[in-house]
Amino acid sequence: MRYIFRYLKHYPKEWFIIVISAIATSASILGMPTMLAAMIDKAILVQKMDQAWPYAWGMLGFTILGFLSRAFRGYMVSRIVTGMTMDIRNDVYTKMLKLSHHEFQEFGVPSLTNRITNDAFIILQFTEMLLKQGMMGPFMLIFSWTMILRTAPSLGVKILPAVFFIGIVVYFIAKFSRPLSEKQQKLLDRLNRILRESITGLRVIRAFNRQEFQSNRFTKVNKGYRQTSSSLFKLMAASPSIFSFILNVAIVFLVYLGAQMIQEGTLQVGTLTAFIEYIFHGLFSLMIFSNIFMMYPRAIVSASRLEEVDLSPITVENPQHPVHEKCARGTVEFDNVSFTYPDSDKAVLENISFKSKPGETTAIIGSTGSGKSSIVKLIPRFFDVTKGQVLVNGVDVRDYDLENLRSKIGYTPQSALLFKGRIADNLRYGKYDADARDMEMATSIAQAQDFIHDLDGGYDAMLSEKGSNLSGGQKQRLSIARSIINKREIYIFDDSFSALDYKTDAKVRAALKEATQEATTIIVAQRVGTIMHADQIIVLDKGKISAIGKHKDLLKQSKVYYDIAASQLSEEELNHEF
After folding, report:
1. Sorting pLDDT into bands at 50, 70 and 90, what band is 62?
2. Do residues 321 and 481 touch, judged by C-beta distance below 8 A?
3. How do residues 65-98 score in pLDDT, each as one tens digit?
4. 549 strand-pairing partners
């Protein structure tokens, strides 16, 4: 509840109006039977309806008051719950953007998606019930039981067992619903994960004819979710029937006792009518509370899941006194760097030391799993080093303002991720105010102009989600263009040429070399042909630097590099290098 009230306190004016309208609604509801009782008793005693008209007008007044107060309360509740849910989603989404790769892996994308959508909606439902019914419940309870004790105290005492039974039902339902709610949300996370994997991996599933396997996998989790949801909903559905039974038994009991009292002359007909209404609303207010208490466990589960994201410590964050270094030099230096992923005990990188200067191209090559991509992820601080220092312009990257640090770097990831929308909008991720000239320059270097102009709309052509309507090479070229559209000090290409043919690869590299003459360029590659002309080549082997040098020197000095080159180059090309 602390998490929910943290957002509710932002609406003090709406709260005040809701409280006033709840009092007015309670007064109108309980004022009606009072007027009705007086009108009936007056008509019976005097046997003239003329003297009962004032009470009829009073009933009309209470009706109008109830209508207006309900309308105001409904409007204010809508403003609060929609605004509060928007604030929750904005805060969680903003926090998600700050999470490091490690936190994303801990939560999982399906779980984060479920939290920001389904969990936020459950809180909306609970808050709406709390403000609409829960705010009116206390006033209804106080007013109705006050009128009960004023009208017929002896009958009021005899109805107390019904209150006791309702309390017992509420307690047991709340006790059993929370674990079911927690299980339901976890199963929904799994359901979303399998669905996401099935959609993104649809081609692989079809290629290996695993449709039936995936279908059975989804069905199994879906069945578990259905069974858990069914148990939870059955538990929730049982309460109205039980409460209705207790309420009706109580009213029958009261009518029987009241009839005896009327026969004895100790109670009037109108008073009994009003008393039954008071009892009904008094017990009904308890039912309102019971509905809130039954919804409470589900809301608490959802709130705790959202609060978990909100309070999650960020492993990569700005220092207290960040460095806002403005000098455009672009030097990158690794000083005895070792790195271990947060969820692993084994070091991925050990004792990495090298320096890359402006105007130079540094290439990193090695076998699969040697730690090539891990090295370049440390430069923009996607992760923090376990040991040593990564220096940019002589300053430890951990001392930089993150925005300032990353504004120096043009990063092209291993997986060319494009967003749904226009090609121009994707390019503007690299430079938000890029004009047509900037786009032409960047796509020309990336050798992407030809296929863009062949598309309907050119730069206004629409891309599907993740750019799925383009080939792998086209996506990589757009990704390269996006990273170089704005002038940077450091350019990082993490195996960004793997989907390009050799001819296009050579053209892109030649154009990049000319465009990045004053910047530091770091290339991670699998192909020797991509990096053989680099100023220095770093050869990695099992997370350690095996050798550093130029292509010709490494062929003679490094067995690891020679084996990689021999597997890709012809014997004639190797002999030519020697």
Report:
1. confident
2. no
3. 878 888 888 888 888 888 999 999 999 898 888 8
4. 537
Question: Measured between alpha carbons, how far is 148 from 404 in angstroms, rounded to an integer?
Answer: 69
The more confidently predicted of residues 271 and 489 is: 489
Q: Which residue has the tokens 């709610």?
A: 181
- Do strands 462-463 and 421-422 pair parallel, antiparallel, or not at all (unpaired)? antiparallel
Mean pLDDT of the chain: 83
Angular region, 467: left φ>0, alpha ψ -120 to 50, beta rest: left
317 occurs within a structural domain? no
Helix ranges restricted to H, 265-359? 269-310
Residue 248, token pair as written in the block: 């009706």
Read off the tokens for 411: 């990063």
- Give CA–CA dist 332/339, Å, rounded: 17
User: For 308, how many CA atoms within 13 A lie in the half-sphere containing its CB?
Assistant: 15
Phi, psi of 380 (to 5 degrees): -85, 10
Helix (H) or strand (E) holding 12: helix 12-46
From 464, 487, 510, the end of a domain falls on 487
In three-state secondary structure terms, 321 is coil
Return the CATH number at 505: 3.40.50.300
Domain range for 145: 2-310
Cα separation, 223 vs 235, in Å, equals 18
pLDDT higher than threshold 60 for residue 43: no
- What does the DSSP assignment read for 171-207? HHHHHHHHHHHHHHHHHHHHHHHHHHHHHHTHHHHHH
Q: Which residue type does 115 have?
A: R
Identify the band that residue 362 occupies on the pLDDT scale cut at 50, 70 and 90.
Answer: very high
Rounded Cα distance between 83 and 105, Å, is 30
Residue where one domain finishes, among candidates 487, 506, 522:
487
How far is the C-alpha of 385 from the C-alpha of 305, rounded, in Å?
A: 30
Q: Concatenated DSSP letters for 135-176? A: THHHHHHHHHHHHHHHH-HHHHHHTHHHHHHHHHHHHHHHHH
* Identity of the amino acid at 451: F
203 to each of 86, 197, 208, 463, how far by Cα in Å?
A: 36, 11, 9, 19
Q: 31 near 58, Cβ under 8 Å? A: yes
Non-local (6+) Cβ contacts of 436 within 8 A are 459
Q: Which helix H or strand E contains 235, and what residues bound it? A: helix 211-264
Summarised one tens digit per residue, pLDDT across range 499-543 is 888 888 889 888 988 888 889 999 998 888 888 889 999 999 988
Q: CA quadruple 431, 432, 438, 441: dihedral positive or negative?
A: positive
Residues 118 and 6: their CA atoms lie apart, in Å, by 19
